[in-house]
Structures are given as C-alpha cells and as structure tokens.
Amino acid sequence: YETFGRIDFLFVVQSVLSLIAFLFAFDSISGEKEVGTLKIALANPVPRYKILIAKFSGGMIVLIVPFVVSFATGLTILVFAGYSLFQGTILAKVALILLLSTIYIGLFFVLGLFISTLTHQSKTALIVLMFVWVVLVLGVPRLSMMAAKVIRPVDDDSVVALRIRLLAEAIQNEKGNALKQLYFDKAKEKNLSPGLLTFDSSDPAFVRKRNEIAGPFEARMREELAKIDADQQRRRQAQLNLARNIARISPASLLSYLMTDIADTGEHVKVRFLDAVRLHYSALDRLIFSKNYRD
User: Fold this and answer.
1) How many CB atoms lie under 10 A from the CB of residue 237?
2) How far is CA 6 from CA 3, 53, 80, 252, in A?
3) Which residue of 162, 163, 189, 196 shows the fewest CB atoms closer than 10 Å?
4) Among 97, 78, 90, which Cα is nearest to 14's?
C-alpha cells in the first residue's frame, strides 16, 4: 500500500494500464528492426507516418476496447446496485474521467512507440521504458513532496505546539500579574487569604473590572495564536503547491490531480473543509470558550 497506494480505478489506470501500454509498444518498431520486416515494409511506397499511424491505431484499439468494455460493465453494475449516474453532473464527470483515462493511456503508448523507434533492439527499448515508467509513475509523484520539504521547509507540529504553549504561558502570566491586585482586594473584602479567591461570577462589578483588565490580554492571545496558525497553514499550502507543481512533470500525478478534482475529492475540498472548521472554532471560541475564565 505504501508503494503503490490504494488499489482503485485511479491505480488501475495510473499504474497498471500505463505499464501495459509500454509492454504493447516496446517492440512495435524495434522488434521489426531486429527481424528485418521493417525494411521490407519501408521498401514499399508507403509513407512512414502511415506505418506509425497504423501501429498506433492497432495498439490503441487493443488497449482501449477492453478498457471501455470493463468501464461500461462497472457502470452497469453500479446502476443495478442503486447508484444513480443521471443526477446533476455525474454522467458528465464520468464521461470526462473516461476521456482523461483514454488520453493518459494513449500518451504512454505514444511514448512507448517513440522509444521503440529510437532503439534497435527490443530488450533495450524495454529496459528504457521500464526506467521511464518507474520515474514517471512511482518516482516523481513520491519524490516531489520530499523535494518540496527541502526547498520550502515547514516546522513540525510539535515545534508549533511548543511555540503556542510558550506564548500562551507568557501572556497568561502577564494577565495574572495584571489581575493579581484585583483578586487580592476581593479576597481582603471577603476576609480570605490572598490567593484563595477564584473567579467570582456572582459579583457583576468584579466581573466587569476583571474583563476590563484581562480583555486586552485575552484578545492579544487569540490574535497571536491565530497568526501562528495562519502562518503555519500558509507555509504548508506553499509547500504543497510546490510539491504539486513538481509532480506535474509526471503524467501520473497530473491524472491523479485532475481525477480527484473532477470527483470532488481533491485538495481544494480539504482546504474548504479546514476553512469551515476554523470558522466553526472561531464561533465556539467567541460564544463558549472565551467565557471560561482561567486566571
């Protein structure tokens, strides 16, 4: 799982069918060079581009027809299982996914044909194509994040948590020092020892005076914590964007991003969810958490 990812439709197209496309294409030209049939074909008055078109058309028919039949069979099973494909834009998205998959498979087949035309032996073409497949499908998508972490480093969550804790403790101590005299006066008023009195919600004047003193500290704490969180999210998003841009060198990564965006399971959905969580937390902090006085 760590190497290849989840085994689903994207995995089948991204990894399996791209490899099959290479295996179909590696000896299309180089194999005929080895046995000499290419010389015989070129001896006839047939343009070279027609030979390439014929190779491409035949290979794509062999690759795409079983894929489309399997795709249609899967959709039929989903329909009979109760999933509606005719609501909203679902059918259009399914058609777009099929089109992207076909283009992706065709791209790898064309690349295989290109390498096959540059080599004179099938085994050489196969070795080169296996190297290209490993780099494009396995290497670049996984190394892109490692490269982004080196180019745009981001503090670990434990480091950020430590900064937040130290900042909160410092502001809390400042607030405590500012409130100390108020609590001592209240304790003296109730004939209590200094330090024994806690927050007294039954005294409106005390609550008002306490909020006047503590309010600026609590507002500053919320502001500083929000800045740390926003800065961390900005750095992470920049790192992620860099990793995505590096990964776009690979058709496999590009297909993954396009398909997840079409299916509404991509990074933009995660960003919207996290933004909604932050707004919800801000509302809770304003209505509930800020009322829990900790002096």
Assistant:
1) 14
2) 9, 35, 25, 14
3) 196
4) 97
Give per-residue pLDDT as tens, 138-174.
999 889 989 999 999 998 889 999 999 999 899 989 9
- pLDDT for 208: 86
Note whether 125 and 115 are within 8 A (CB): yes
Other CB atoms within 10 Å distance of the CB of residue 29: 24
pLDDT in tens, 6-56: 678 999 999 999 999 999 999 999 998 888 888 888 888 888 888 889 999
- Please give the model's pTM, rounded to 2 decimal places: 0.75
Instruction: Name the burial class of residue 18, with classes exposed (0-12), middle (13-18) and buried (19+) by CB atoms within 10 angstroms of its CB.
Output: buried
Mean pLDDT of the chain, nearest integer:
86
Radius of gyration of the chain (CA): 32
Question: Which portions of the chain are predicted below pLDDT 50?
Answer: 1-3
Query: 128 Cβ partners below 8 Å, 6+ apart?
Result: 115, 119
**What b/e sequence results for 99-118 when a residue is b if at least 16 CB atoms lie within 10 Å of its CB, and e otherwise?**
ebbbebbbebbbbbbebbbe
Residue 25, burial from CB neighbour count under 10 angstroms (0-12, 13-18, 19+): buried
AA letter at 168:
A
At residue 46, the 3 state secondary structure works out as: coil
Among all chains, which residue has been given the structure tokens 């750095």?
A: 235
d(CA 273, CA 30): 51
